[in-house]
Amino acid sequence: xxxxxxxxxxxxxxxxxxxxxxxxxxxxxxxxxxxxxxxxxxxxxxxxxxxxxxxxxxxxxxxxxxxxxxxxxxxxxxxxxxxxxxxxxxxxxxxxxxxxxxxxxxxxxxxxxxxxxxxxxxxxxxxxxxxxxxxxxxxxxxxxxxxxxxxxxxxxxxxxxxxxxxxxxxxxxxxxxxxxxx
Length: 182
Prior knowledge:
Elements: H1 16-22, E1 27-30, E2 33-36, H2 42-61, E3 67-70, E4 74-75, E5 80-81, E6 85-88, H3 90-96, E7 108-112, H4 119-131, E8 136-141, E9 146-151, E10 155-159, E11 163-165, E12 174-176, H5 177-181
Parallel strand pairs: 7-8
Antiparallel strand pairs: 1-2, 3-6, 4-5, 6-7, 8-9, 9-10, 11-12
């Protein structure tokens, strides 16, 4: 989830390394500031839960292995982030599965966008993920019923009535926009 960024009341500056070591719950580290992740609604939570469950069911039934996470911390090249839903393939689970914070972006991440989020912040976050080891980012817009998928080579937009599919990670996963956002 991306929020209209309101810095927390943290009085002492905190480094990215400190954030990674002591990751305060419900925060991201952005440009040297701790940013509270707020703005969660019932709709947002429902979509986050559904997408996590659908990705987990697909990776299990396809025997792809790996893990699906919600709100798990990762480090991009510039920031400390927590995608709403993320998938880590088995080879990276064996390498980083016990880390406090994933020291890179998840290969597949999803952000469920709230009505108060700024478009520029959403796009910057997707770019950060892709520049830091991510291969595919889903930006889910519940109100407009859009899902934008960004990879290194393409940007795709799916709307109500269409089927959205993973492009590079978690092969074979697909769902209708309407089912995910219902």
